[in-house]
Amino acid sequence: MTGPAVETDPAEMGLDPSRLARLDRHFARYVDDGRLPGWTIVLGRRGRVVHSSSYGTADIESGRAVAPDTLFRVYSMTKPVTSVAAMMLHEEGAFELKDPVHRYLPSFRNRRVYRRGSAGAPSTVPSREPIRVWHLLTHTAGLTYGFLNAHPVDAMYRAAGYEWGAPPGTDLAKMCDDLAAVPLLFEPGTEWNYSVATDVLGRLVEVCSGQSLDRFFAERIFEPLGMHDTGFCVAAGEQHRLATLYFPGPGRRAVPAPADFDRVGTEPPRLLRGGSGLVSTAADYHRFARMLLQRGELDGVRLLGTRTVDYMTSNHLPGGVDLETIGRPLFSETTFSGVGFGLGVSVTLDPAAAKVPDAPGSYGWGGAASTTFWVDPVNQLTGLILTQLLPSGTHPIPSQLKQLVYQAFVD
Fold this sequence. Notes:
By secondary structure, the protein is an alpha+beta fold. It is 28% helix and 17% strand.
């Protein structure tokens, strides 16, 4: 599948082409000085592609250029897809947002909350509040990530085999059961912490739909939207399209990840994670973003009702506060000040507080390999960048992308 071609003159959509050129020049420098291997950027306005560009290589060592059909690991950009899947089931009455998760995943019944002590000898108390479905969608469930390395509960995840990956042979049901046995970081609904919550949500999708997560995604989201290159694996004969994954090395120059690190196979993995794992193209993910911008519909295919998308992309943090107020100051795919969280996406509340040019109500998310996307309903804008440098946050790509896109507006 080819990448999205520019469909209209950006000047007709209120964007100065000469100012948009600054965007490509800026990120080209990231490639020229070795910080990134290569990238693809796609911008849309009012449902039309106004800018589409690629630069650099998908594999530095061979010199293979980034192409319109290059496949990228999108990591946590899987999370909005899982959240859409969950809300599709919600629209069908499969669950209510206030339902306790243990109603569908019994291992989450009678959870305990960490209070003090070491990872080996924690002191815990019974949770007063069960984990509810909306807690999973908003990362307020009290779950965490083993790779955060910030708390004894994180260490317990690592001890159970869940840091970056999972124990061999683990499937999503086993992963959820394993992590349900670990104490919660806090009482559900009281704080925000980036976590495996969307993985658990993916298991909820499986239980409520009766389908594996990859089949639900393929049949209910990817095939209807024409996202033919998106999935948990890369077909045999298409592996040459997959971009190589890089880490920052000496002098912040990109160096290849070990050959066995996060290998993408030709068959779906045993562990289908709702929070990461998808591979996609710029064209495919742009279609997903356009569906959200158009409030659940694309090219005559409707996945969600208009009010559901509006509801998902409003701030659901308790008291309407931002992440700076309620979130733990740890790694995340978003800044905290002036940013809230909806059902599966971050939501801009106050661009002045966030210190990033944007519009109130914009929403989106990023991935661990420095990918990001956002949707701006006020300006009818979608934007994304795909590259392969892990971890995200090595360079300020999301904020600079917005900075250079919004300066091009002249309408």
